[in-house]
Amino acid sequence: xxxxxxxxxxxxxxxxxxxxxxxxxxxxxxxxxxxxxxxxxxxxxxxxxxxxxxxxxxxxxxxxxxxxxxxxxxxxxxxxxxxxxxxxxxxxxxxxxxxxxxxxxxxxxxxxxxxxxxxxxxxxxxxxxxxxxxxxxxxxxxxxxxxxxxxxxxxxxxxxxxxxxxxxxxxxxxxxxxxxxxxxxxxxxxxxxxxxxxxxxxxxxxxxxxxxxxxxxxxxxxxxxxxxxxxxxxxxxxxxxxxxxxxxxxxxxxxxxxxxxxxxxxxxxxxxxxxxxxxxxxxxxxxxxxxxxxxxxxxxxxxxxxxxxxxxxxxxxxxxxxxxxxxxxxxxxxxxxxxxxxxxxxxxxxxxxxxxxxxxxxxxxxxxxxxxxxxxxxxxxxxxxxxxxxxxxxxxxxxxxxxxxxxx
Length: 408
What we know:
It is a single chain. This protein is of the alpha+beta class and 408 residues long. Helices cover 56% and strands 18% of the residues. The protein has 13 helices and 12 strands. It has helices at 3-15, 18-55, 85-94, 128-132, 145-150, 159-166, 210-217, 237-252, 268-311, 313-321, 326-363, 371-397, 401-406; strands at residues 60-65, 69-70, 73-74, 98-113, 116-125, 137-140, 154-157, 176-179, 182-190, 205-209, 226-231, 263-267. The chain has a 6-stranded mixed β-barrel with strand order 4-5-10-7-9-8. The protein has a two-stranded antiparallel ribbon with strand order 2-3. Helix 3 packs across helix 8 and helix 11 (326-363) runs antiparallel to helix 12 (371-397). The two termini are 27 Å apart. Residues 68-81 have low confidence and may be disordered.
């Protein structure tokens, strides 16, 4: 019997019980849609994180203080006391693979402008930080190295801060803002950066000279929170990291094989791996749970096909009596199972892509539907149909014609 005839017979058999066929496909539909949606969220998150890391600038290294210990107990990364501003200048002067260096001081504060106020992050930097992060000015100007070293009370605002303090489209250059009751003169506005891969607003920030934030807002003189470094080229990233490690070990009198160091150096790939590891784990877990619903759908297909074999025993016996072979019966019932899986997979793809679009429009989640995820879901659905349809089809093919004809 030709496959076209088998397909027509399978389609007619499924059409006789449309509601039952749809309910049978429902598990496959939900499973395929869930797999596509979960993989879309995972791919979207990864791309968003990669964009965030790229937004840090080219060839970026970050140097953090290490852990401090009290009574043998670690206080956590960033609590060490031995990373000072002179370390930043030593990196700039003594590491040939390094191009730009800027110590960074961060805090948050309520900022007041006239009758408006806004809580935001204040970042103290040297001008080289703008080159490291590839940040562009939209209006006004940037502060200078002298401003950063002397602690001049000037600042550059992000677009979100401008909007909330001065209104949409305002140009606050020359205006005054107060940060913890200290007056700052606005000298520039940054170009918009948008959201980071973690969902934070990169325009909700104020840049000010390093010493101004370090001394006036944080009350610190020597201890620094981190150092941003840019290697001379991408090829020199590893070399620059090794030079910084060697230099700081020498300055802190730490042996080369000693792992207890008061600093940590992170490059872009390490930061990317750190940010994506948790995301990948969660997405993998959710995709696995979604795949379970495909198995449940497959069990539903097996159950319905067994019921169908029982209901159509006399029909099977009659077809065998007029010349149908066992393999024809096997192919017919197996094709019905595959057809259920295929139609369920098709509807599941439509539902999965639609739900992914819904996540974007309603929740603003970063999603990315790829042809790979659709292909994978389809293949999985087809395998489910073959696997769970084989036993009922085999049972139908092994029926004895005379006993099938006498079946009530």
